[in-house]
Amino acid sequence: MTRRIALTFMALIVLLLVLAVVPLGLSMTQREQTSFRDTTQAANRTIAAAAEEYLSDHRSPAAMRRLLEQAERAGDCAAVFDTAGRPVAATGCPGRTGEGEEDDQAAGNWGDLAHQVLVHPGTAARERDDRLVVAEPIGDTTHPVGAAVLSRSAESMHDRIASMWWRLALIGAGALVAGVLLSVALARWVGRPLRAVDAAALRLGEGALDVRAPGGRGPQEVRRLASTFNTMAARMEALIHGHRAVVADVSHQLRTPLTALRLRLDLLAAGADDATAAEFAGAQEEIARLSRLVDGLLAVSRAENAVPRPVPVRVDQVVDDRVVAWEPVARERRVSLTGRCGVRLTAYLSTGDLEQVIDNLVANALDVVGEGAAIRIEGEATRGRVVLRVVDNGPGMREAVREAAFRRFGNPEASGSGLGLAIVHRLITANGGTVRLQDTAGGGLTVLLELPPLPPQGAPQGLRAGS
Hints:
Blueprint: H1 2-55, H2 62-73, E1 77-82, E2 87-90, H3 100-119, E3 124-128, E4 131-139, E5 144-153, H4 155-205, H5 220-270, H6 274-305, E6 311-314, H7 315-332, E7 336-341, E8 346-349, H8 353-368, E9 374-382, E10 385-392, H9 399-404, H10 420-430, E11 434-439, E12 445-451
Parallel strand pairs: 7-9
Antiparallel strand pairs: 1-2, 1-5, 3-4, 4-5, 6-8, 9-10, 10-12, 11-12
């Protein structure tokens, strides 16, 4: 967002500079050219007025020659022509010395311009070789007695225009630099507190309920957002801690009377007849089921209270270890349990979470598949993620049940406590992964886990869980 604000602000500044500086520069350029033309024509009219006294009134040409000499000293070239177009007096200047082909061409061009104003009285101007040549009729504009021609170099005008454009460019560049600095400062002023709120929200989503966004910085709306977020986080922390405390306390308090009740039933069953002993055995099974339910609630509570601290985990080694641990149970139930993962397949998880996930999934699968079934654990790296599949060919799961399977007691058809998949979902999502249930081709259920890989910056490779 900071970059977008800065780029938008810079684009606006560039647009304003273009709309303001370029028209100003063009206007000043036109004004400079007009001023240069007017000044040149005024100087030529002065020469024409002095030449009129000589050609019309037959006075001394001294005033005319003095003006021509002044024009020559100023770097101008000037000439006075009579009514026949013949030069009466002229200054010496490059291109008008009267020698060489280039001089003749210049003299011819001046003569053509003089003839033009004699035939059509009025001021005429022409640009040639970076010089401005102006011609003015001498005397009455109806019946002129001659023509005055003045050529002035436009180099000084171009230098002034170039200097003016350079100044405007420097002003524009300075304004652009100031605008960039201002836009970056503005973007940071707005973006930093928003990033802080975003980071706090991310940590809150990962389970750090005590996180709070820093307030007192940025615009008023951002400060209000941080305050609202902190209020929400505080209320959420109180509610979740209260909920977890109730579940943990109730579950813990239930274990003691359940244990005492089981011992009493064992004592009563020891001296009872066969029929009564069978009833006691049924009661003990229900107590065992209730104990498993309490243990599941405690496991969910511990999973929800845990804050993930991811480290590199060798998925292939964890899978091999859990297959070895569960293989005797699978063999006893006549179920095939195999594992196959890519070599050195590594994910980024909290220590012990992957073991608990695999244990729950294998236990659930062993509870539902029958004799002769198969359970496979497969792992591979694909599309920048580590994918782990637990596949069985058991009875599968209906779509309606799959949609609610990750909620506590969401599967009414579960043979156990119904909390195993809830624990799996909590552990995987808390570590930044995803978990889905799919049908196995040919029948059965596939649990698809997408685990986060190592971060781009890398993590200390010496910390490896399960290795």
